[in-house]
Design brief:
There is one protein chain. It is built from 7 helices and no strands. The chain has one domain. The protein starts with a helix and ends in a 5-residue tail after the last helix. 85% of the residues lie in helices and 0% in strands. Its main location: membrane. It is found in: Cell membrane; Endoplasmic reticulum membrane.
């Protein structure tokens, strides 16, 4: 009986290992899909920060240019006190009011620095978490190199100008970041679609379904073999007991 059970049990273990591997691969794909979705949300957050910074820098530059074209833009209050000017008080009050309003609309320097610092931290965390797991994937290597290249160039320029590095120092830098991160988002979305397709294929895999059916069949066979073995074992016990009683009490038989 055991000789019949052993090959069935081996076959069962083999099939179970195959099914376990299939489940492991499916689980791996689902984790990868989840990681990519997190990366897409993180990337979108970086992109939103960059687009806001671009709008603010555009606004700041346009406001500065608009003010600089005014004939009284460079005339300070001290200059007017010492030298006077040729505009009346009503016009001067209106000009000061407009300048005050414009300054209130401009982004505060502290806020810009805070946002750019937050962006740097988020970008570095994203690179560390996302790229460390994908160092061997060629599809993301160029993006990593380009992001690091932008950072290195802006650091060098800041050092040459004697300034603290700010990734939002120029429109060109922000636009480069936006272009690269948009392309990266497209690549992540593309990989995510590929993963979703692989997950669906894994779910519909006929071979996996065939393994499941064979496992069920082997389980039934093992159960039937165990029941038969138990019946044979009980029968042997009964026969042994009867034999012992016959030896001890021969006159009862």
């Amino acid at each position: 009986m055991d000789r019949e059970i052993i090959p069935i049990r081996k076959s069962y273990c083999t099939k179970w290992a195959q099914l376990d591997h299939a489940y492991f691969e499916l689980s791996r794909l689902r984790r990868q899909k989840s990681d990519l979705e997190v990366a897409m949300r993180w990337n979108q957050g970086l992109l939103n920060c960059l687009e806001e910074a671009l709008d603010e820098l555009h606004f700041h530059n346009n406001s500065y240019k608009k003010g600089s074209t005014s004939p009284n833009f460079h005339v300070t209050l001290q200059h007017r006190v010492l030298h006077g000017n040729n505009i009346n008080l009503a016009t001067e009050r209106e000009l000061l009011k407009e300048m005050s309003t414009t300054r209130n609309q401009l982004p505060v320097d502290y806020d810009i620095k805070h946002d750019s610092t937050h962006f740097k931290q988020s970008l570095n965390e994203f690179i560390q978490l996302f790229y460390e797991e994908r160092q061997s994937e060629s599809r993301y290597k160029n993006f990593h190199k380009e992001l690091k290249c932008i950072e290195e160039k802006t650091i060098v320029i800041a050092c040459l100008k004697g300034r603290i590095w700010n990734p939002w120092a120029s429109l060109a830098t922000i636009k480069k970041y936006i272009t690269i991160i948009k392309e990266l988002s497209e690549e992540i979305e593309k990989e995510n679609r590929e993963i979703i397709s692989e997950i669906e294929e894994a779910k519909m895999n006929k071979e996996t379904e065939s393994i499941r059916k064979k496992l069920l069949k082997l389980e039934h066979q093992l159960r039937d073999m165990r029941l038969k073995r138990e019946e044979v074992h009980k029968c042997l016990l009964n026969l042994t007991q009867c034999h012992q009683e016959a030896v001890l009490y021969p006159f009862n038989y």
